[in-house]
Write a structure and sequence with these properties.
By secondary structure, the chain is mainly alpha-helical. It is built from four helices and no strands. It has helices at about 10-30, 40-60, 75-90, 95-100.
């Protein structure tokens, strides 16, 4: 994938493509919760990596943080499981996290 600035035409295509893809993924994820073992770890990693990169890019572009999840649809346990493994995977210690927390607090 190129790191070049996308053309305005690419942006327009994404504005049409991403909502449908997000809806399809959300529906597939709901169905997959019946038997999560049937989900490919590699495909889930691919989706989450893309989502995290997109969230970070959007937050940096808008210069503000916004809720990354619908808090009414997840449990604290689900959040802790995900965040803990994300920190472990990225080799980020709690000290490192504390240094980044509230980094450049935005209004």
């Amino acid at each position: 994938m190129s790191e070049a600035t996308p053309s305005p035409l690419a942006g327009a295509a994404i504005e049409q493509e991403l909502p449908a893809a997000a809806q399809a993924f959300a529906e597939a994820a709901e169905r997959a919760l019946v038997d999560p073992k049937g989900v490919s770890s590699a495909e889930l990693e691919r989706v989450l990596t893309g989502a995290i990169k997109l969230y970070a890019a959007k937050a940096e572009t808008e210069e503000r943080a916004f809720p990354p999840v619908a808090v009414e649809k997840i449990t604290p346990t689900e959040v802790v499981i995900f965040v803990s493994e994300l920190l472990r995977t990225a080799n980020i210690s709690l000290f490192d996290l504390a240094m980044w927390y509230r980094r450049g607090a935005r209004s």
